[in-house]
Amino acid sequence: MTHAPAAKALVVFCHPKPDSFTGAVRDVVLERLAARGAAVRLIDLYARGFDPALRLADWEGYLDTPANREPVAGDVQALQWADTLIFVYPTWWYALPAVLKGWLDRVFLPDVAFLMPAGENQTIRPGLTNIRRLGVFTTCGASWWLTAFVGSPGKRILLRGIGLLCAPRTRKVFAAHYLMDSSTPQTRARHLAKVARQMDRLLR
Fold first, then answer.
1. Is the peptide bond before 185 cis (omega within 30 degrees of 0)?
2. pTM higher than 0.70, yes or no?
3. Residue ranges of the domains in the chain?
4. What would the mean pLDDT of 40-58 be, rounded to a whole number?
């Protein structure tokens, strides 16, 4: 009997406080990956002091491939190595923290995350076809209905926007703890259990 190879997972963690509840979500994600024998690379954006700003030199060289990836070569290599991409972050103002959005701006480059149009009036093409699993785990101060009313920008960016750049039929999971400011030990425990279930679903 043959078994599918273990996942190669890139976990992108974005929170200024390592032992926050978001950090507890990260720990559950890492525990479930370890239980499945996955190879894991963790990028902790705040711990690294990642500079999210796309500066003039970066912008001017944005289309200059492969030189455009030199300032973020390690992260690009990790992204291209992975078949599983997981984001763990808090939702601020309905969307991604600036550090995480800046990481996307600087790392999801042409000829890395996407291919530029091949002709006039054409669109970009997927570049992350190595990614077959996509997980998004977040917390929200707002309620589910208010987040949905605003349009769930963070969820849409990661699951829909990045999802379109991944392999066809990429498996996707999502879990958010809403109303974090009025959460209780019970709601937080339930959410961590949900994260574990979603991770098992992602890795099945």
1. no
2. yes
3. 8-203
4. 96
